Amino acid sequence: MCLICDRIEMIKKGENPYFVKELETGYVVIGDNQHFRGYALFLYKNHKYTELFQMDIKERTKFMQEMTIVAEAVFKAFKPEKMNYELLGMGDAHLHWHLYPRVEGDIENYGNNGKGPVWWYPMEKMYGDDCHPTEEELKEMKDRLLVELEKLI
Questions:
Q1: What is the DSSP letter of 133?
Q2: What CA–CA distances, in Å, run from 32 to 15, 47, 116, 148?
Q3: DSSP calls for 51-95
Q4: Which of 10, 57, 68, 149 is the most buried (most CB within 10 A)?
Q5: Which of 122, 60, 109, 58 is nearest to 87 (CA)?
Q6: At 140, phi and psi to the nearest 5?
Q7: Predicted pLDDT at 20
Q8: Which percentage of the chain shows pLDDT scores above 90?
Q9: Is the pTM of this model over 0.85?
Q10: What are φ and ψ of residue 102, in 5° steps?
Q11: Which string of b and e fits 89-111 if b means at least 16 CB within 10 Å?
């Protein structure tokens, strides 16, 4: 099984502390690491496809619509200056969106004088132990995101 499938199984068993809400095509979760406060993911429900173009147009359209709703909810809940979106897959070839709320200075002086994509920030800093939310912080982030999702759905 892949990491995303494992996380989805945890959601189904009620064991994923980062789970926020189930939508028609996927699951909304808060990211394990919160250097970018409000970082969230939208996990496609199954491992059937590895590329967007493999989906039929109806399912792809719904998946994209829901991802956009999740992004808007993240934006409203955490009030960043800009949202960054990533759908990668070389690490885990299971469709999933990374939704990064961005603010000026969040990558310090890395990149182009502090400007650029999240992956210009050192991984050891982005995924450091000090970037894990406390239980209270996680609950507060999940609650804020869920409120905004409910308004949009």
A1: P
A2: 14, 21, 22, 20
A3: SGGGS-HHHHHHHHHHHHHHHHHHHHHH--SEEEEE---SS--S-
A4: 149
A5: 60
A6: -65, -40
A7: 98
A8: 94
A9: yes
A10: -120, 145
A11: eeebebbbbbbbbbeeebbeeee
| Per-residue model confidence as pLDDT tens digits over 43-101 | 999 899 999 999 999 999 999 999 999 999 999 999 999 999 999 988 889 999 999 99
* Helix/strand/coil for 110: coil
Lookup: tokens for 51? 């590329």
Task: Compute CA distances 81 → 18, 19, 93, 117, 120, whole Å.
Answer: 24, 25, 30, 14, 18
SS3 assignment, position 20: strand
Pull the structure tokens for residue 74.
Answer: 């993240």
116: left (phi over 0), alpha (psi -120 to 50) or beta: left
pLDDT at 91: 83
Stated length of the chain: 153
* Residue labelled with tokens 């996380």: 7
